[in-house]
């Protein structure tokens, strides 16, 4: 190995010399002998990111917590607010949610207290029985009787109650029928022509003609629903009556000249339907004619 020196420098003895060697890179055989140690796998840390959860979710979790039901494994409760993993909530939002949950709990508690107060104020059947002296006397006399007499008394009471209910129902049905009669009459009376309505409500209307023609038409079409009724020659007022009566009974009427005399006119009444139903309220009853 060589070294550099200046002309003025003296060469030191060999034992005092320092030798510097340069290491050469190892061969390929040494590289194969090296062992690479495995590195531990990188495990990401669990982070709680903000995630918007609906109000329905918080309500459901709050109800589940109040009922004693455990929530999912990824749910944790912080200051009364339910959060799931990857969720972060700030102080202001947490405070608002705490306040809303507290107010909701107060509202439910107030409703329950009000309901309890209402229930407590209403006396029970036994309390009313104990407070009423006459009722207690009747109860004591009833309990002192034999079992057969008690059964007979209870059966009679049930029968009496059924009779009262049946009578009340019949009375209600009769009242509803009486109330429905004017409505049925009004509905049928509106089918008549307006000028005929005015004539039927006037004092000039011949009542005897109405009382005579009404049972004739009803009897004829009950026996022959598809028949044709032809009246005798009638004057102008009588023809108005038969036209109004036919319209009230859902029939069709038409006047024509008589074959006997050209000056006289008759009326033909037909049924456009295959059946004839007598109304519950007749025209004479509706007009108050008897």
From TrEMBL:
InterPro entries: R3H-assoc_dom, R3H_dom, R3H_dom_sf, R3HDM4. It comes from the Eukaryota. One of its GO terms (molecular function) is nucleic acid binding. Residues 207-270 form the R3H domain. Pfam families: R3H-assoc (PF13902). Gene3D superfamilies: R3H-like domain (3.30.1370.50). PANTHER family: R3H DOMAIN-CONTAINING PROTEIN 4. This is R3H domain-containing protein.
């Amino acid at each position: 190995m060589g070294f550099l020196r200046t002309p003025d420098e003296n060469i030191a003895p060999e034992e005092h010399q320092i030798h510097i060697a340069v290491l050469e890179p190892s061969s390929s055989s040494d590289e194969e002998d090296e062992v690479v140690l495995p590195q531990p796998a990188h495990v990401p840390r669990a982070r709680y990111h903000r995630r918007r959860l609906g109000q329905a979710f918080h309500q459901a979790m709050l109800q589940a917590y109040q009922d004693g039901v455990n929530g999912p494994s990824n749910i944790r409760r912080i200051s009364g607010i339910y959060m799931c993993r990857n969720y972060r909530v700030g102080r202001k939002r947490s405070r608002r949610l705490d306040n809303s949950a507290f107010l909701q709990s107060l509202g439910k508690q107030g409703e329950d207290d009000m309901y309890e107060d209402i229930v407590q104020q209403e006396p029970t059947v036994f309390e009313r029985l104990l407070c009423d002296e006459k009722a207690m006397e009747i109860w004591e006399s009833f309990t002192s009787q034999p079992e057969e007499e008690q059964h007979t008394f209870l059966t009679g009471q049930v029968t009496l109650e059924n009779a009262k209910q049946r009578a009340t129902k019949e009375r209600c049905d009769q009242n509803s029928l009486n109330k429905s009669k004017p409505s049925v009459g009004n509905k049928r009376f509106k089918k008549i022509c307006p000028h005929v309505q005015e004539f039927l409500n006037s004092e000039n209307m011949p009542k005897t003609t109405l009382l005579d023609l009404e049972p004739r038409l009803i009897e004829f079409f009950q026996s022959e629903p598809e028949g044709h009724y032809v009246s005798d020659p009638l004057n102008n007022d009588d023809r108005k009556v038969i036209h109004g009566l036919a319209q009230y009974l859902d029939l069709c009427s038409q006047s024509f000249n008589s074959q006997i005399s050209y000056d006289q006119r008759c009326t033909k009444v037909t049924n456009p339907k295959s059946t004839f139903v007598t109304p519950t309220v007749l025209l004479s009853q509706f007009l108050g004619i008897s």
